Amino acid sequence: MAETLRRVLEPGRAAEPGGENAAEADPPLLLLGGPGCGKTALLFAAALEAAGDGRGPVLFLTRRPLQSLPNRTQAALDPLRLQKIRFQYPPTTGELLRFLCSAHEAQGPAPALLLLDGLEEYLAEDLGPQEAAYLAALLLDTAAHFSHQVGPGRGCGLIVALQTPEEGDDGDAPQLSLLQRYFPAQCWLQLNAPGPGQRCLRACLEPGGLGPRAEWWVAFQPDGAMTVTPWPTQTCDSTSNKGASSGGQP
Predict the structure, then answer these.
(1) pTM of this prediction?
(2) Which tens digits make up the pLDDT trace of 101-126?
(3) Is 135 buried (19+), middle (13-18) or exposed (0-12) by CB count in 10 A?
(4) I want to staple 127 with a disulfide (CB 3.0 to 4.6 A). Which of 60, 110, 131, 219 is the partner?
(5) Which run of H or of E encompasses 34?
(6) What is the pLDDT, as a whole number, of residue 37?
(7) Distances 248 to 49, 71, 189, 243 between C-alpha atoms, Å
(8) Taking 70 as the threshold, does the pLDDT of residue 227 lie above it?
(9) Quick one: which of 87, 56, 53, 90 has its CA closest to 70?
């Protein structure tokens, strides 16, 4: 869901031409980076964005409850938006698989956006390539099922956050390459030198062929407020990002 994430990073951005059909065509997206770079905060911001555009509820999957709101924006304090975000906490890979397999039995309106935070924690349960591929395919299938429920021209988006390996650790590289086959759109996050009391990162969005690459400078204030400005060059080298992300991305 590159378009949803782009609207998070470009406040006030209008929807892409094509209206609701654009949501259906938007490919699933991997949000990538090292620990502590704001993946959960951006996922939550994407949830708020989708909850506020009138399309339907948001399903947010994570292993444990959020300890606090990741960003203290006006949208994050809007009770109507927060009510539309449904959190589920599958504690193990088996529970996550069971939840996804039973998604067709769920009651109520289908979600317009499916989010999964901390995919690496599920993959850490000794999943081999076949099991990882099955989980990725099941996530896509679940989003496709929700899209069918939502109706033609609208669709259910899918964004999955994955922590990238530390620098020098190539053990998870094959898994990452495998997952990238299922998620053509990616957003790489890389920590940069913070200002006083800030946590700053560089966000590079590769929308999977549905538009140009784009970069932003994102700063999180001590109170959780997020400010975004365009990166000066507006160009993105995915090769350098992938190398840098393994050493400092969110």
Answers:
(1) 0.84
(2) 998 887 888 899 999 999 999 998 87
(3) buried
(4) 131
(5) none
(6) 86
(7) 27, 21, 8, 9
(8) yes
(9) 87
